[in-house]
Amino acid sequence: MKKTTTLATIVAITLMGSALCHAQDAKKNQFNKIDADKNGSISLEEFKAKSKTPEQADKKFTKLDADKNGSVSLEEFSAAKPKKPKKQKPAAPAAE
């Protein structure tokens, strides 16, 4: 029984580590797509150019720029919490 539990624990830890690496790779890929000049940081202009909501880009960029130096590093970008999905309103009951 102890061997089975140990094996299950090892498998679970391995899978969690793999998921974490995948999430980090996804963030790095997203960062690299935004970093147009490939200098290792994202400027406000680069961020706005790739933003789906340019009117909110200034506010989002300010939140990402933790050290307030005017650019976002990969570390700052990776530390950002993913945005929460919007809650969907329940469908209205069908009219009879």
Brief account:
This protein is mostly helical and 96 residues long. It is built from four helices and two strands.
Describe this structure as you would to a colleague.
This protein has 96 residues and is mainly alpha-helical. The mean pLDDT is 80. The chain has a single domain, classed as EF-hand (Recoverin, domain 1). It has helices at residues 2-34, 44-50, 57-64, 74-79; strands spanning 41-43, 71-73.
Task: Describe the structure using short key phrases.
single chain, 96 residues, mainly alpha, Recoverin, domain 1, two-stranded antiparallel sheet, 2 strands, 56% helix, flat
List the helices and strands and how they pair.
Layout: H1 2-34, E1 41-43, H2 44-50, H3 57-64, E2 71-73, H4 74-79
Antiparallel strand pairs: 1-2
CATH superfamily: EF-hand
- Measured as a percent range, the helix fraction is 55-70%
In total, how many beta strands? 2
Distance between the termini: 59 Å
Q: Output the helix-strand order.
A: HEHHEH
Overall CATH class: Mainly Alpha
Poorly predicted sequence stretches spanning 5 or more consecutive residues? none
Rg over CA atoms, rounded to whole Å, is 20 Å
What is the SS-derived class? mainly alpha
The largest sheet, given as strand count, sense and whether it forms a barrel, is:
2 strands, antiparallel
Question: How many domain units?
Answer: 1
- Overall geometry comes to flat
Strand portion, in percent?
A: 5-15%
What CATH calls the topology is: Recoverin, domain 1
Helix tally equals 4
Query: What is the CATH-assigned architecture?
Result: Orthogonal Bundle
Mean pLDDT, to the nearest integer, reads 80
- Biggest sheet strand order reads 1-2
